[in-house]
Specification:
Blueprint: H1 12-24, H2 31-41, H3 43-47, H4 54-68, H5 73-85, H6 87-94, H7 99-116
Helix pairs in contact: 1-4, 4-5, 5-7
């Protein structure tokens, strides 16, 4: 668990969240609903500025939305506020990141900020689900789970 580098995705939370965003971004919903869903999956990180994953949540969402051409004012505003206020750097410093790594992180955040201030350009429409995905099981299927005297 924790952070192992200075990149936006150099942490367990960031790696897990990226996978969640990839799945959620396929839903045929507008950007405001997508961020609502993401906030519901990680309510503490999304809503509590004192949570150590708060800045990671918003920065990863902002980067992933940018990469996918998803424009969302709330995400953009939150991430720019985190970068401009220095909240991410302060949190990582509080968690024990070295000063040299904090300087590298500042550079990473400056690069992200430069992308976020650009207008979002929809080069091509994002790929969304057009029909429900097929179920992996059928009615009547039986699952077998090994136990040890009734204990998992």
């Amino acid at each position: 668990m924790g952070t192992w580098g200075t990149g936006i995705y150099s942490g367990d939370m960031a790696a897990d969240l990226r996978a969640t965003i990839i799945a959620v971004a396929r839903l045929p919903l507008d950007s405001n609903r997508l961020i609502e869903i993401l906030c519901e999956t990680e309510p503490t990180a999304a809503n509590d500025p004192s949570d150590e994953d708060h800045t990671t949540f918003w920065l990863v969402v902002a980067d992933q939305f940018f990469k996918r051409g998803i424009s969302c004012g709330r995400v953009r505003e939150m991430s720019l506020a985190i970068i401009d206020s220095g909240h991410d750097i302060a949190m990582l410093g509080k968690l024990g990141m070295a000063h040299s790594d904090l300087a590298k992180r500042k550079k990473t955040l400056a690069e992200l900020r430069a992308k976020l201030v650009l207008p979002t350009v929809d080069v091509k429409p994002r790929k969304t689900l057009t029909k429900p995905q097929p179920l992996l099981m059928k009615t009547g299927d039986l699952l077998v789970y090994p136990t040890s005297e009734g204990e998992p």
